């Protein structure tokens, strides 16, 4: 019986769970108030604070760290890596502390997992971080040699749902071709072929989402960026945290938008339809990369709970392939299942080497 601790640090919460094999013993989300977080100048300064909270939750739930088989953490913003399990080592901790791709609370997961694992003589891993890069070479080009397209996205949930589809279809993951759209606060659409995510449309360049701007007309971006109204930090924050539904309708909660629509708000309906329209275009774009030979289109993430939204997308894209809906954010189960594949010898964990 494998006992697995799963760690998933987010900006305003730390989610943890303990599994015995695939059975969840407990799961909890420790919420962090602004006052708690604002005490720390840098994200890494929260390390001891979050580690102690995790150990406290284990004790509260009667789980001894010494009884764990392994620890699996959400991956932080590492340099580009292949999909799958990566063994946490000191190099990874140094990379996330000193040279992350970007600052994010998820960067704390691996160092906390490594510390607990070292104290208890057990392995620690991360799985399918946002920086998974398996894009084929032709997909990397932009139109400027100094720029390359970046493979950044919701890989953990998307790949887990692609695995789920293959399993339910009675086929090997490597033998299916699926487009998976993760629809949450941010949006990522990826196409899996031969067991790899060979191309991706994320919200740096694709559809807008509840809080992100998506792809924008370059001349207008330049005009706004050089208007003098923003410094670079404020402009990036605008694009990532206060655009999309938030900018148009004053909320990033799709449920609130649907209530506005139910109350007769025609503008809210048009904006919501536009988000579904753009997401459908992204799905169609990726279908062309495999000449339309797609086995299924998977809609996942929190907004996949919305029948209104998924119906709009299905209407536009079902001519490509059947649409399958796996609603919700399934990150904790995805992490635990990844750990089980490694522990059972079904998948081999990779070693990480820092790039600085």
Task: Produce the secondary structure layout.
Layout: E1 3-9, E2 13-20, E3 23-31, H1 34-37, H2 47-60, E4 70-74, E5 85-87, H3 90-98, H4 109-120, E6 124-127, H5 155-168, E7 178-183, E8 187-193, E9 196-202, H6 218-225, H7 232-241, H8 244-249, H9 254-262, H10 266-288, E10 296-301, H11 307-317, E11 323-327, H12 331-343
Parallel strand pairs: 1-4, 4-6, 7-10, 10-11
Antiparallel strand pairs: 1-2, 2-3, 5-6, 7-8, 8-9
Helix pairs in contact: 9-10, 10-11
Q: Choose one word for the global shape.
A: globular
Distance between the termini: 39 Å
How confident is the prediction overall: mean pLDDT?
95
Helix and strand content put the structural class at: alpha/beta
What share of the residues lie within helices? 25-40%
Give the CATH architecture of the largest domain. Answer: 2-Layer Sandwich
The whole-angstrom Rg is 20 Å
What is the string of SSEs from the N terminus onward? EEEHHEEHHEHEEEHHHHHEHEH
Percent of residues in beta strands: 15-25%
Would you tell me which CATH topology of the largest domain applies? Nucleotidyltransferase, domain 5
Number of domains: 2
Number of strands: 11
Reading side by side through the largest sheet, how are the strands ordered?
A: 3-2-1-4-6-5
- Which homologous superfamily in CATH is the superfamily of the largest domain? ATPase, nucleotide binding domain
Largest sheet: 6 strands, mixed
